[in-house]
Design a protein that fits this description.
single chain, TATA-Binding Protein, five-stranded antiparallel beta sheet, 5 strands, about 20% strand, DUF1499 domain-containing protein
């Protein structure tokens, strides 16, 4: 019985040390040695890459806003409207709306195409979600967009993919007026 007490004390000290180190990593956030770096070491780059909307197969905890003709193989959570603005202006509006969101950065902009990717991070644990945006022309002076938000970590446990897309679309519609 007496030998178990030192082991219990040692395990408790080890547990508290690990908890303190974990708290330090989370507190450092985006700084070198912070939680973002830890996630990258464990799960890879936070940008999950491009999306082929025409052949999209959804994951369980994602969010999709897409016209049916652009995403024929995937059921969208939201169908975005066609807006009476040119695609280049819509792309700039989306960029302003996205970058107005906390902890959201543009990580890729297709120079010759119409697709951009953003990484949006959760507030405390800084879990990364990749948001892909594609602008789709609908004739002269009209365009719409497809948005797909997916989580790299947590499979939606701490993500608000669908709510994020609804916020972005509301912001885009307001700015397009």
């Amino acid at each position: 019985m007496r030998q178990r007490a030192p082991i219990a004390i040692l395990l408790a000290a080890l547990g508290l040390t690990l908890l303190a180190l974990g708290g330090l990593v989370v507190a450092r956030g985006a700084e070198p040695g912070g939680i973002e770096e830890a996630w990258m070491l464990l799960f890879g780059a936070p940008d999950l890459g491009p999306v082929d909307f025409e052949h999209l197969r959804r994951s369980g905890a994602d969010g999709l806003a897409c016209p049916p003709d652009i995403c024929p193989g995937a059921h969208a959570d939201i169908v975005p409207p066609t807006l009476p603005i040119a695609g280049a202006r819509l792309r700039e509006i989306v960029r302003r709306v996205a970058q107005g969101e906390p902890d959201t950065v543009l990580v890729f902009s297709d120079r010759w195409g119409e697709q951009d990717r953003y990484v949006a991070r959760s507030r405390i644990m800084r879990f990364p979600d990749t948001v892909t945006v594609e602008i789709v022309g609908r004739g002269e002076g009209a365009s719409t967009l497809a948005l797909y938000s997916r989580s790299q970590i947590g499979a939606g446990l701490f993500s608000d993919n669908r709510a994020r897309l609804a916020r972005w679309l509301d912001g885009v519609k307001d700015a397009a007026r």
